[in-house]
Amino acid sequence: MTMLTGPPAVPVPPPPPRETGPWPVVAAVLTGLWAVLVTVPGQVTGWLVDQVVLVSGLDRALAVWPVVAAATVLLVGAPALALALAPRSPALRATGRAWTAGVLALGAATLLRVVPPVHHEAYLGALAVTAALLALVATRLDRRRPVAPPAAPFPAGPPTPGAGPTAQAGPAATGAVAGEVGRGGRFGAVPLLAIAAGLAMLLPWAWIGALGGASETLLAGLAAAALGVLAGVLLGPGFWAAFGAGSARRPVRPVLLGGLVAGVTLTMLAAGAGQSGAQLPALVLLPPLGFVLGALDAAARHGGRAAGSAPAGWLVGLALAGPLAFTDPEEVTLLLAAARDVPYWVAVGTGAGFAVAVLLAVGYGVLFARSRAGAPRRGPAALAAGALLAAVAVVYVVPGQPGLYGERLLVVLREQADLSGLPAGAPGRAGRDARAAEVYRRLVATADRTQGDLRRTLRGLRLNPTPYYLVNAIETDGGPAVRAWLSGRPEVARVLVGQRPRPLPAAAPPARGDTPAPTGPTWNVSLIGADRVWSELGVTGTGVVVGSSDSGVDGRHPALAAGFRGGDDSWYDPWEHRRAPADRGGHGTHTLGSAVGRDGIGVAPGARWVGCVNLDRNLGSPARYLDCLQFMLAPFPPGGDPFTDGRPARAPDVLTNSWGCPPLEGCDPGALRPATAALAAAGILVVAAAGNTGPHCGSIVDPPAPYPDVLTVGAVDRSRRLTDFSSRGPAATAGKPDLVAPGAAVPSAFPGGGYTTLDGTSMATPQVAGVVALMWSANPALVGDLDRTRRILADTATPATVPAGAPCGGSRDLVGAGLVDAYAAVRAARATSSG
C-alpha cells in the first residue's frame, strides 16, 4: 500500500482536564462546609471542657484533646482525601490535598495540648518543632510529584485569537517555584506587601496584649514562624495555579475560589495553633487571609512570576504571632470572664484583627485581582511595610504594655525550719507573742543559713531573687532551662511555676456595691446566734485583731473604716504597693465585712482588722500567698525587709482566708504546708475556705484547705442545708471540712460604700473567723490556744442538713462537726475561763 505523506504535523497541546459536571464542585463545597463545622465546634467544645474541669476543681482531663484530634482527623480527613484522589479537575485535587494536609497538621498540633498549660514554654517549643517537621515532610512530598511550568502572567489585553490554552502549573509546582517570590527577589514587592498585611494583623495585639518572659516570647515567635512556613508550603504557587492563576478570561477565579479553599485550610492550621484558649482568636483571624493570599498571588503573576511560599509564610506567621506571643492562654479563662479582664481584651483584639483581615482582603483584591492591573512596585510596598512596622512599635511602647511579664519560679529548699520544742509560755496573748517571736527567729535563721549561696548565684545571673522564710524558698525569674538547672541542685526540693498575670491595656472598672445598708443583723448573723452574743453576753470582739488576705479592703467603707487597726504595719499590697487599704474586685471587702463589719453584717463588729492583697484580678501565686502569710506572722512597715523588720508582737490573732492555690496558679499539694504549720506553732489560727468545687467528693484539694492545722469551712444556706457548691471531703491529710457556716446569698460590704450579696464558701469562712474573735474576746486566756478553741467550736456546733443520698461517705466529710454556733461557743469559752 502506498503511503501518502504531507507537511509535518504541528503538535497540539493536550486540552486541559475537563470538569466532570457540577457534582465534584458540589462535593468540594459540602466538604469545605463540613470541615469548618467539625473543626470550629470541636475546638470550642474542647476549650469549654477544659474550663468546666478547671472551674469544678477536677483533675485535668488529658484525653480531651487527643479525642478532639482523632475525631477531627477522621471526620474531615476521609472526605478531603477522597476529594484529592477522585476528581479529574486540578482545582479539586489541589483542594483535597490542601485540606488533607491541613487536617493532618491540625491533628498533630492538637495532640501537643497534653502538655500542662503551666509548662507553656515546653508546649511552644514542641509546636515549633512539629510545624517545622510537617513543613519539611510536605515539601519533600511535593517535590516527588511531576513539575508543571508556572502559569503565564495576566496579559494586558484579550488573548490572541488562535493561541493555544495557557499552560497551568499543577499543585506540584510548589517545589519548582518556591524561590520565585515576585518582583525584586526574596524581599520583592509581593513579600513586602505580605509583611505589611501581617504587621497590620499584629497591630491590635501590640495594643491589647503583653509579652511573657524572654524564652516564652522567643518560642512563641518560633512557633508562629514555623506555622507560617507550613502555611507557605501548603498554599504555595502550585496551589494557586490549580485554580487558573494566569487566566485572561477569569482572573478573579484564583482569588475567590482559591481564597475560599485557602481559608478552610487556614481554619485547620488555626485550630492547632496554640495551647487551649490561644487557638480561639486564631480561628477567627486566619480564614479571611485566604483571600489576601489569593490577591497576592495575582499581584505576583502580574509581574511575571509565581508568588512562591514567602507571602503566605510572612502573612500567617505575623498574624499568629499576636495570639501566641501577646496572650497567656491560661488567662483566656472563664475564671476571668466576669470583669473586663483578659478574655474581654482578647475578644476586642480578635474583633479588631478580623476587621483588619476583611479590609485587607477587600483592598488587596480590588488592587490585584484584575487582568489589567499593573504589577506592584517594590518602593511603595517597602514604604507600607516600614510604616506599619513603625506603627506596631509605637503602639506597643505608648498605649501598649512594653516589657516582659513571664511567670516566676518558686524554688522550695529541702531544709525547712525545725519548730519542735517551742515553750508553752503563759496563757493568752503574752504567751502567743512569745511563741510568735521564737517561730519568726527560727524561720529567718534557717532561711539565712541555707539560702545564701543560691541567692548570690541568682543575683549574679540577674534573675531577681526574692527570699522567703515562712516557707524556706526563693522566688526568681527563669524559664525551662533555669528551672531544670535549679531542680538539679542538691539543696532544692522542687521548683514551682507561679502565675503572673499580664497587665491589661486598661484596668477594669472598680467593683461597686449597689444595695443599701441592712437595717439590722443580717440573716446569716442571726442564724449562727452572733447577734445574741452582742445583746445577751455583751461581747463584740473587742481586743482581738483579724487578718484578711484577699483582693484587698475598701478602707473607707463605713462598715469597716473604724475597725482598721492603723499604724504603719497594718496593710500590705505586694501587687501594686498601695499605701492605704483599697480593693478593686470587692471580694476582700465582702469577706472582711462578714467577719468584723458594722451595720449588722459582721459577726465580730468590735474586733479590729489588718489586711493584705494576695489576689490580683482573682489570680494569685505561691509567692503572693506567702507574701501575705509572712506579713500576718510578722508585720513590717512600708518598704521594710520581712527578714529584719518583722514585728511578731503585732501579728493578728486569727486569719480569714477565702482563697485557694490550685495547680493553675503554681501550687502543688504541699506548697504552703510549712507556712500554715509555722502560723499554728505561733498560736495564730488560720481559717480557710473549703472551696466551691462541690458536689464532687474529695474536692477539698487546693492549699491551704486540706491541711490539718487549718480550720476549714464549708457552706450552708438559710435552711441549714449543705449547698451544692460547697467542696466535700475526704481530704488526703485530715477530716475536712471542720465546720460549716452560712454561704448562700450572704449580704456584706462592697467597695464604694454599698453592699451586695454573694455565694460561696468564701462568704462562710470569715463568719467562723468572727466567731473565734468573739470567743477570744470573751476569754482572752484562749488567745493562741488553738486546740481548745477548735474543740469548743466542734463541741458546740449544731447539726446541718445533708442532701438525701449525698455521696462522699458520712456527714463528717460533708459538714464536719456541723453548723458553727456563735452563742454556744462564746458561752463555752467563758465557762472554760472559770472552770
TrEMBL record:
GO MF term list: serine-type endopeptidase activity
InterPro entries noted in UniProt: Peptidase_S8/S53_dom (IPR000209), Peptidase_S8/S53_dom_sf (IPR036852), Peptidase_S8/S53_subtilisin (IPR051048), Peptidase_S8_Ser-AS (IPR023828), Peptidase_S8_subtilisin-rel (IPR015500)
Region described as Disordered: spans on this chain: 148-171
Compositional bias of kind Pro residues: 148-162
Upper classification of the organism: Bacteria, Bacillati, Actinomycetota, Actinomycetes, Micromonosporales
Spans through the membrane: 21-42, 62-86, 98-116, 122-139, 187-207, 219-243, 255-274, 280-299, 306-326, 346-369, 381-399
Pfam families: Peptidase_S8
Keyword annotations of the record: Hydrolase, Membrane, Protease, Serine protease, Transmembrane, Transmembrane helix
Protein name (record): Subtilase family protein
Species annotation: Micromonospora sediminicola
GO biological process, one term: proteolysis
Domain of life: Bacteria
